TrEMBL record, chain B:
Name the UniProt record assigns to this protein: Nucleoporin NDC1
Homology family: Belongs to the NDC1 family.
Membrane topology listed for this record: Multi-pass membrane protein
Recorded GO MF terms: protein-macromolecule adaptor activity
Protein localization: Nucleus membrane; Nucleus, Nuclear pore complex
Length: 519, 587
């Protein structure tokens, strides 16, 4: 098993990780030390002060106006529209001079009964009592989401452009080949939890936010910096909000969305604006989705200690109960055969292996029987010249590079202890012929900046490129230069890359590694 | 002759069995739904125990068993009507008048009459089941001179008439909402799970629809009824218990019929796996390449295309058979037949779009369209030959070319929309329709023009829907082709796909151009209003958007897989340029 003790110690104070080259993580004291390369995506910075923040809430404006003199019917209709059944009952109960006493009494009783039932329901699933914003923060893959300047980030799957969702509910799209930076704003685009580009498409960007799901069509040739709201399609379904996770199918035909409030996971046909709910009651909601790169499976975790793995041919699922907590994060190997996941409250990474049997026409895949622990990230103390540094603990999110050679793990750290700040640990991995996990090193930013969100570039030619969003509002890119040892797969340019002579990491040859046993 | 034999095989062996299975399940589901209905109709808050005992004695009585047998008969009849009237290509009425024509079609009148009678039968069953004051049509009423006489029991009558009314309105709404249209889902699911997922929708739909129908019925009854009866007054009709019983029996009626419809749809659209090739010659006609080219029945073609799309996506072994060579001779017969059929489908759609665009551009409305004439110049001459003949063919040979079926019902009805008739006939300068829009008579009256425009726009949107009514077939053809081409990059050992790659690419690019141009028409890109609480399937309204998205994704799938290798493919300069846009992700 791979553990943090095998890692090279973290960088001394003031040093930043620049890149990996020749099997070594290079560091520098400032960002100017970056190596010159043929592809350098822009490093961006969004200082918190530059954003125009607004503290509006839809309901608060009501109190600022004078007493409304609408008829009871109008008020009831408005209450029904805004707040549903509970809103209507509330309205009737509170306007007792206008309604008969028995009506206000009975609606008050029904309201109390409803509240009692929902509190009972809430005690079964405590997350239901959270507000939408807290819920997104709780289940987001972003560390400390509510306080984050960059709330979501997405590379385009085929080109070098990316989308950044900011604290002020706007989304900016950066393209190194274009001078224009479109800014997307929409009335319904509030508290963006996740963004993702549609595969096999140049323009469609799906956005999961507090009340609905938006699909923007951003014409790559357009020179407009403010695409109109008409470019966005709103996808909403009653009871399906807030959306905390979305996933496009790798073939680009379907979009999945999940909400912790809804036990059904939605499969959207975006062009037809129709959806098929896939309902499974256990778990009390769906928090995180991850579609395997080969399109055959989907990981769907719930707020309870349970997650599901769906197969996407007939949409049946396997239940995977966890012992300790809910499944916090997960990622798939490029061939879709392996799922790595982490569980809240535990400091290890588990692996599940799926063997697809395409010969069986019904598309049933024989699943594994138990998860295997592949890495232990429990707290480890490193002796550095600056003093002892404690690294390790619970895991916030996982990211695996598209070639399956680097695995980045965002460790939560401990906000109460100064010496246990969040940090990114990177592993070297190999999927074929056997699954291996080797330590690589820690990725650190400028002093005081904590990593919040990370994603690998989907088609970096010289290895892997990890994009990290920091608490300071800065977005940096850390390249990992290596020759791919994997089986040639289709690159972004379409041509299979030539197989290279595999280079063995000699430094780690004598250390104990996680190596799968071939049975 | 041969093809009719073949389709007989499919109807006999697959479709009939599916319909029978759906009817059997609907009959099996009847006892629980009847039990729930009995319980709800007899429920009283004050005597819960008594309700339950009454329900049990009711369910085991002879009349209950007799009415249950009647209900089974009704369900079988409904299933039979579903089977008789179903279609995979919706009939889209392009105007209100055309819709009216559809409603007055003799076939539809028979349908309505049968539904009326069945509604009455179900209402009789529910009246007997509810018992109480509804049980019999006559009741003894005391006369002053001593002997008894039978009087009409109006409570029974109102239930019977209510059932007939609900049955009739169900049949009308079936036409208006295209309830006989069977759509295919993008997500494959097992039948049980799909049924379970749709059940809440069915309950909600039947309850709301019953509410509306009962409201309308009450209004009709009030105005048409004889005022001598005690019930035909506002006070008499506002009897809560009566309204509740009317509503619950209408809900029960609609629920059983909707369940039948739902089961029928689920069973009919279940995927069917055709063999790609067979080693026995007698089975050769059941194989995918052969079945794809069949014209009738339409469902067979749709299921074959769905199977193609699924196999191209999910099963490497069956893809391998598609790419294989015939044993003596070494010809890629399977791939040739499949790709040829898919390409001809796509080319057919392209022609239809071009013809439609030309028709729209050459009539009076051309002024309002953006540069309608400009599009005409770069057209390849091959498609210029028959601008309106596509539509003419579809009338002449409605039977032979079922793919253009959406147009036929409009045309054989006397109320065919003028727009479609114009599409159908080659446009003539002297035709009465020609230039009507520009006539000064209309231009002078602005409000009238406005209403005319909105009417016209609505009509144009409908005709745009009708143009894409069968596009599910094209979507599958695009998916099937693009996934097969993508898989051929690593799986095609003999290079059979390479030979057709130029024609596939150019076909898709030409279609892309035609679709792009179609969406520049003012009515084409407006989204229809979605109705969620209806059993009618409105998938057909958005098929054109789905087709556009699928087409783009299909081209991107090929360009992303082959990348720069595509520069070696023989294409015209214009198409090369277009493809380069896709390679640079600028479309």
């Amino acid at each position: 098993m791979c553990s943090l003790a095998l890692f090279p110690p973290p960088l001394p104070y003031g040093q930043t990780t620049v890149c990996e080259s020749n099997n070594e993580l290079l560091s520098g004291s400032s960002t100017e030390d970056q190596l010159k390369q043929d592809f350098s995506p822009p490093s961006l910075s969004f200082p918190r002060e530059s954003l125009k923040l607004h503290s509006r809430t839809e309901n608060s404006s009501k109190a600022a106006f004078l007493d409304h003199s609408e008829t009871l019917w109008m008020r009831s209709a408005a209450a029904w529209r805004d707040g549903g059944l509970t809103g209507l009952l509330n309205e009737i109960t509170n306007s007792h001079p206008h309604v008969p006493k028995w009506l206000s009494m009975s609606s008050g009783c029904i309201l109390a009964l409803l509240r009692w039932v929902s509190s009972f329901h809430g005690s079964l699933f405590p997350h239901l009592t959270l507000s939408s914003e807290d819920m997104i923060a709780e289940f987001s893959q972003v560390l400390n989401w509510s306080d984050c300047v960059v709330r979501a980030f997405a590379w385009h799957p085929h080109t070098d452009k990316f989308a950044v969702a900011l604290l002020d509910d706007s989304i900016k799209i950066y393209n190194p080949k274009s001078a224009t930076t479109p800014t997307l704003k929409h009335r319904l685009q509030r508290n963006v939890a996740v963004v993702q580009w549609k595969p096999l498409c140049a323009s469609a960007l799906a956005v999961g936010c507090q009340n609905c799901l938006l699909v923007w069509h951003v014409d790559p040739c357009s020179l407009s910096t403010r695409p109109s709201a008409g470019c966005a399609h709103v996808l909403s379904h009653p009871g399906h909000a807030p959306v905390t996770s979305i996933a496009w199918s790798p073939s680009g035909s379907l979009l999945l969305s999940a909400s912790p409030m809804d036990t059904a996971m939605m499969v959207w046909d975006v062009a037809a604006e129709s959806c098929v709910p896939l309902q499974r009651v256990g778990g009390g909601g769906v928090t995180f989705l991850s579609w395997s790169p080969d399109g055959s499976h989907v990981l769907a975790s719930t707020p309870s200690a349970l997650f599901r793995v769906w197969e996407t041919r007939m949409w049946t699922c396997e239940r995977w109960p966890c012992i300790k907590g809910r499944c916090q994060s997960g990622c798939w190997s490029p061939d879709g055969s392996r799922l790595l996941f982490t569980v809240q409250g535990e400091t290890v990474i588990y692996a599940l292996t799926f063997t697809n049997t395409p010969a069986v026409p019904s598309g049933t895949s024989k699943g594994p029987h138990a998860a295997v622990v592949v890495a232990d990230l429990s707290e480890t103390t490193f002796n550095t010249p600056d003093g002892d540094i404690v690294v390790g603990g619970e895991i916030q999110s996982l990211a695996w590079d598209p070639r399956g050679e680097r695995l980045a793990v965002l460790l939560k750290g401990d906000p109460r202890a100064a010496d246990r700040s969040p940090i990114i640990a990177v592993f070297k991995t190999r999927v074929r012929p056997i699954f291996e996990l080797l330590p690589c090193g820690f990725v650190q930013g400028e002093p005081g900046a904590e990593p919040r969100l990370m994603q690998f570039h989907p088609n970096f030619r010289h290895g892997a490129l990890l994009t990290v969003c920091w608490s300071s509002g800065r977005i940096t890119h850390v390249p990992f230069y290596f020759l791919s040892a994997s089986i040639p797969r289709l690159g972004p340019s379409g041509s299979p890359t030539l197989p290279h002579v595999q280079e063995r990491p000699a430094d780690f040859a004598n250390q104990s590694l996680f190596t799968e046993l071939i049975s | 002759m041969f093809s009719s034999e073949q389709s007989c095989w499919f109807i006999r062996k697959v479709i009939c069995w599916r319909a029978a299975a759906s009817i059997a399940w609907a009959v099996l589901l009847l006892p629980p739904s009847t039990a729930i209905f009995v319980f709800l109709s007899k429920f009283s808050v004050l005597h819960p125990i008594q309700t339950i005992s009454e329900c049990f004695s009711m369910l085991t009585s002879a009349t209950a068993i007799f009415s249950f047998i009647l209900l089974c008969g009704v369900i079988i009849m409904v299933g039979f009507l579903n089977f008789e009237y179903y279609t995979v290509i919706p009939t889209i009425a392009c105007s209100k008048i055309a819709l009216f024509g559809q409603l007055l079609h003799p076939r539809q009148l028979v349908n309505s009459l049968v539904h009326c009678i069945m509604g009455m039968i179900v209402a009789w069953c529910s009246a007997v089941t509810i018992g109480f004051r509804y049980e019999t049509l006559g009741h003894p009423c005391a006369q002053t001179d001593g002997y008894h006489q039978m009087c009409l029991n109006e409570y029974h009558l109102i239930l019977l008439l209510g059932g007939a009314f609900v049955g009739f309105s169900h049949s009308l709404l079936g036409v208006i909402h295209n309830m006989n249209y069977v759509s295919f889902h993008t997500v494959q699911q097992y039948k049980y799970l799909r049924f379970k997922g749709c059940l809440p929708l069915v309950v909600r739909c039947s309850a709301t629809q019953a509410l509306y129908s009962v409201r309308n019925f009450i209004v009709v009854y009030y105005f048409l009824g004889n005022s001598a009866h005690p019930l035909d007054s506002i006070a008499g009709l506002l009897d809560l218990s009566l309204l509740y019983h009317l509503w619950i029996s209408a809900t029960f009626l609609l629920f059983t019929w909707y369940i039948m419809l739902l089961l029928f749809r689920i069973f009919l659209t279940e995927g069917y796996s055709f063999p790609v090739q067979s080693s026995f010659t007698e089975d050769a006609d059941h194989c995918l390449p052969k079945v794809l080219t069949e014209k009738q029945p339409m469902l067979l073609k749709f299921l074959a295309l769905q199977d193609l799309a699924l196999l191209s996506q999910h099963s490497p072994l069956r893809r391998c058979e598609v790419f294989s060579l015939s044993q003596p001779g070494g010809h890629p017969h399977n791939w040739n037949a499949i790709s040829k059929e898919c390409l001809s489908l796509l080319a057919d759609l392209t022609q239809r779009l071009v013809a439609y665009h030309d028709t729209v551009a050459t009539n009076g409305r051309a002024k309002s369209l953006s540069s309608g004439k400009d599009f005409m110049s770069p057209r390849p001459t091959a498609f210029m030959k028959t601008p309106a003949s596509v539509f003419a063919r579809s009338i002449a040979g409605g039977q032979q070319s079922p793919l253009t079926a959406p147009f036929t019902p409009d045309l054989d009805s006397p109320f065919m929309s003028p727009a479609l008739r114009r599409l159908a006939a080659p446009v003539e300068q002297g035709s009465p329709w020609y230039g009507t829009v520009q006539s000064p008579h209309i231009m002078r009256r602005v409000p009238k023009l406005w209403s005319f425009r909105s009417y016209n726009c609505n009509k144009m949107q409908s005709s745009s829907q009708a143009l894409f009514a069968d596009s599910q077939a094209h979507i599958w053809a695009l998916e099937g082709l693009s996934y097969l081409v993508q898989a051929s990059f690593s799986e095609d050992q003999f290079g059979v796909v390479q030979t057709t790659l130029p024609s596939i690419l150019s076909c898709m690019l030409v279609l892309q151009e035609a679709v792009d141009r179609h969406f520049k028409l003012p009515h084409a890109s407006s989204k229809p209003v979605r109705s969620t609480s209806s059993m009618g399937d409105s998938t057909y309204k958005t098929l054109r958007f789905a087709l556009r998205a699928t087409l783009k994704t299909a081209i991107y799938r090929i360009t992303t897989t082959f990348g720069d290798h595509l520069n070696a493919v023989q294409l015209s300069a214009e198409h090369q340029k277009r493809l380069q846009q896709f390679l640079e992700y600028k479309e």
